[in-house]
Amino acid sequence: MTREVPKWLFVGQIDTGYINTAQMRLAVIRRACPLAEALCDIKYHRLGGRWGGALFRKLTFGPPISLLNRDVIRLATRVRPNVIWFDKGNWITGATLKQLKNICNPTLVHYTPDPAFFSHCTRHFLNAVSDYDLVVSTKEYERDAYEQAGALRLKILPPTFDSQIHKRIMLTPAERQRFECNVVFIGTYNRERDRPLIALARAGIKLAIWGNGWEACEANELREYIRYEPLSGDDYAKAINAADVGLGLLCKLHPDQSTTRSVEIPACGTMLVAERTVEHLRLFREGHAAEFFSSEDELVKKVRDALSRPSYRQHIADNGRRRVLELKCDVGEQMDSLIAEVHSVFASKRKAA
Questions:
Q1: How high is the pLDDT of residue 121?
Q2: Spatial distance between the Cα atoms of 72 and 77, rounded to a whole number of angstroms
Q3: Which residue, 74, 76, 67, 55, is CA-closest to 9?
Q4: Which end of the chain is less packed: N or C, by CB atoms within 10 Å?
Q5: Helix, strand or coil for residue 309?
């Protein structure tokens, strides 16, 4: 007797115009579950134009949220999925989840690699947490918040990289000319990131800074190094490959201990120098698979040392790559394990019904 393969519905940000982690997760789901349907929720976030859309996103009310929830219900009614995966589903209401259970009683999963309570939080998500069969996060520091919100089954995972993208790449001369630098940082601008980067620039270290929002940076020391564009996919990996050191700065808007950069940089075979945190120290042995810093002075010292000792830098980079492969935090491996757990929850629900 063949085992039934559940039919999936994926709801998330999958049509952004660039490669993102939601697309990576969906690709793995579709390999395991070929009949998976998908609904992109980006268009709902863009309704109302620039100012109206920003107001809806800030206040989390209005037509975009109503339309998204309506269309999820309509699609589920048509395709009758066994599993619905909500990727960053902070606009999905508890009322919608309850209605979905009445329609086809699917296994309901919520996944986010972002903070769900310290930022990005909505009243809709708070009221819906207890209706999910499984909630998945990468933020250990939010475990208590999930449990207090009534999560029935919670899984905390390490950050992931995609081995199809984040890997060692042979660069062409043109690519090396475009991306080559001593230290690369790829990430969205926030003011707290100025100080470590300024310290490196003042030390005469050649930087390359890529990402959204850097037009707001007022630091004169950084202007020659800012590329004023985001990177994703192959270009993101090539920029990391072209650097001697990849810089792992954390966002200070919430208490992050690691990010996807923490594993993507070593996966590309480049030395990681990142902020010293409990999570980073758990992931990598300092001085063996990565280097860490707790001050600007220490950062400059660690980077200067790495740049002056190529063989040592390569040793750290090789060990770092080996470590992320050992951790099995490739998105494919992690998602395969997670899909198996979702199917187990689905089977248990069906047996109990």
A1: 77
A2: 8
A3: 76
A4: N
A5: coil
Identify the helix (H) or strand (E) that includes residue 56: helix 49-59
Q: Chain-wide mean pLDDT for the chain?
A: 92
Residue 236, burial from CB neighbour count under 10 angstroms (0-12, 13-18, 19+):
buried
Give the pTM.
0.87
The residue whose two tokens read 């989390």 is 60
What domains are there in the chain, each with its CATH number? Answer: 8-157+330-352 (3.40.50.2000), 173-326 (3.40.50.2000)
Looking at the DSSP assignment, which residues form a beta bridge with residue 84?
9, 108
Amino acid letter for position 128: A
Higher pLDDT, 193 or 52: 193
> How far is it, in rounded angstroms, from Cα 337 to Cα 341?
6
Given strand 291-293, what is the order of strands in its sheet? 207-210, 181-186, 243-248, 271-275, 291-293
Residue 71's CB: how many other CB atoms inside 10 A? 15
Residue 308: CB atoms within 10 A of its CB come to: 9
pLDDT over 90 for what percent of the chain? 79
Q: What is the pLDDT of residues 71-92, one digit of tens each?
A: 999 999 999 999 999 999 999 9
φ, ψ of residue 44 to 5 degrees: the values are -70, -35
Residue 3: pLDDT band (50, 70, 90) is low
- Rounded Cα–Cα distance for residues 83 and 108 (Å): 6
Beta-strand (E) ranges in the chain? 8-12, 37-40, 83-87, 107-112, 134-137, 154-156, 181-186, 207-210, 243-248, 271-275, 291-293
Distance, in Å, from the CA atom of 266 to the CA atom of 243, rounded to the nearest integer, reads 12
Going from the C-alpha of 321 to that of each of 8, 119, 155, the distances in angstroms are 33, 31, 25
Tens of pLDDT, residues 202-221: 999 999 999 999 999 999 99
CA distance 250 to 257: 7
